[in-house]
Design brief:
This protein is mainly beta. Among the domains are: 123 residues, Pnp Oxidase, Chain A, CATH 2.30.110.20; 89 residues, Elongation Factor Tu (Ef-tu), domain 3 (Beta Barrel), CATH 2.40.30; 63 residues. Helices cover 4% and strands 46% of the residues. It contains two helices and 29 strands. β14 and β15 form a beta hairpin. The longest helix is centred in the first third of the chain and has 10 residues.
Length: 470
């Protein structure tokens, strides 16, 4: 018997493929907590004349290499995993004050390293440049190797991923970089490789897709967590180990997260110079509270009753300007410290049963997406209960109240994650009494995300990696 294997010996790595049947050598290593690979063989016992009472043959009908892993949320590796789960990574860099800004003077093809531009002013070698507008479908960030009159020469390691047209914007950018995955109808294929022990067992899962992700957090102060399930088409036994390089940062922690939950809709529109907001829920706000309207975070400096609605005075001393005007009916999100646990679920509804004339899956087909939310709050008033059951009225309601959830966890300017469920349908919000003690009362909230004029889940990662993951 050989030396026993410790759990710490081994690795898990993941990488995006350019197409099906084009597995790649994974380069992103996961700092996982738990990992499981189940290569399941479906079998059938063959009973034929002459076997007597005992079966003599068992045949394998199909083989499905599926797996799962859980990991604390790290800004780079978690962003890559989420991008492949949703389908397309939309990127942007931070603008450089006084940095280069130009446009393409001619179109370029995918794989180009020579960018013809209208002005090379303020660009220099080793700078990073972004092509296309922030979060554009084809936005990408490349590193400059050298600059000449009317041209940016890119490093061979970062050629263009896409073709770009004449007049497309080119600007200098720097860290931090922003990744905002977009949902697509067809997901990207990924390759996963895991090693158990010191090269004792190495599996490579090819042509895989991520079926489900759960993002969760819990007080007191536990790391935020991502649990991932995936389905593979085929597997291969490898004999040579990869060289592991792990992300050298701390994970995001629960107490680093801020929670904003919808409590209101604007009673009247607000311009970019407004200092007051009208509300029907004056009792929900306290002086000093922060609340969110779209991308603006505002602070309540005073509140008062007004004819037909309450009035909130916005403290503008800690703001520059409101980013945009807001129309009547825009959701108002109040920052709350009552959340003790949450889970956001994202399921791709993959069909795992497509087996044809081969032993393994012929394909993995995308089904209906489903976004869910559940959370535990300290109970302080009846707002969520009323919305879920009574539709803000006094009788049981047949319509479903659509709310909104926004979560931002930030360790630093270059390490953050933001989650928005813009149309959260409240399914339940029970509050239960417990006799015999004076313990706190908690409220469980659950809901499902619907699509409206936005996708049903928006997630954004801030990190130091300019790579467009897919």
């Amino acid at each position: 018997m050989g030396e026993l294997t410790r759990k710490e010996q081994g690795y898990l790595a993941m990488g995006g493929q350019t197409a099906k049947n084009a597995d790649t050598t994974p380069t992103t290593f996961i700092r996982f907590q738990d990992e499981a690979l189940k290569i399941e063989k479906a079998s059938e016992q063959l009973s034929v004349h002459g076997d007597g009472r005992d079966d003599r043959e068992t045949i394998v009908t199909s083989v499905k290499p599926d797996g799962s892993f859980s990991m604390p949320i790290y800004p780079v590796s978690s962003a890559l995993v989420m991008a492949h789960a949703m389908g397309n990574d939309r990127v942007a860099g931070s603008a450089v004050a006084g940095g280069g800004s130009s446009t393409l003077s001619g179109g370029v093809s995918a794989g180009a390293t020579d960018l013809p531009i209208t002005s090379e002013t303020n660009f220099s070698g080793t700078d990073w440049c972004q092509l296309e507008a922030d979060y554009h479908e084809k936005a990408e960030i490349c590193q400059i190797n050298s600059v000449s009159a009317g041209h940016l020469i890119l490093k061979n390691a970062t050629p263009t991923k896409y073709a770009h047209d004449t007049a497309v914007a080119v600007k200098e950018v720097t860290s931090p970089y922003f990744h905002r995955p977009a949902m697509t109808d067809v997901l990207t294929w990924v390759t996963l490789e895991r090693m158990v022990g010191a090269s004792k067992l190495i599996d490579r899962i090819k042509d895989a897709k991520i079926s489900e992700i759960k993002i969760s957090g819990e007080a007191p102060g536990k790391p935020l967590k991502m649990t991932v399930n995936y389905m593979g088409t085929s597997a291969e036994k490898k004999t040579s180990a990869l060289t592991e390089t792990l992300e050298a940062t701390m994970p995001l922690i629960f107490h680093e997260a801020d929670f904003y939950i919808d409590i209101d809709e604007l009673k009247s529109g607000i311009s970019d110079s407004a200092t007051t907001v009208l509300t029907d829920y004056l009792e929900r706000y306290e002086v000093g509270d922060y609340f969110r309207q779209d991308d603006d975070v505002l602070k309540v400096s005073a509140k008062s009753a007004a004819s037909g609605a309450g009035s909130l005075t916005v403290d503008r001393a800690q703001l520059s300007t409101i980013a945009a005007s807001h129309a009547t009916g825009v959701k108002t999100l109040l920052k709350t410290s009552n959340v003790s646990k949450f889970e956001v679920g994202f399921n791709n509804g993959l069909d795992d049963g497509i087996v044809t004339d081969e032993l393994t899956r012929a394909h993995i087909l995308e089904g209906k997406r489903k976004v869910t939310f559940s959370g535990t709050l300290l109970f302080d008033d009846e707002v969520f209960y009323n919305r879920a059951l009574y539709g803000n009225g006094t009788t049981l309601a047949s319509d479903m109240h659509k709310g909104m959830i926004y979560i931002k966890a930030s360790k630093s300017a270059s390490q953050a994650m933001e989650i928005t469920i813009p149309y959260l349908v409240y399914l339940s919000a029970p509050v239960n009494l417990t006799g015999g003690n004076n313990e706190k009362i908690e409220q469980e909230i659950s809901g499902q995300g619907n699509a409206g004029d936005q996708q049903s889940l928006t997630i954004k990662f801030t990190n130091i990696d300019p790579t467009k993951y897919c």
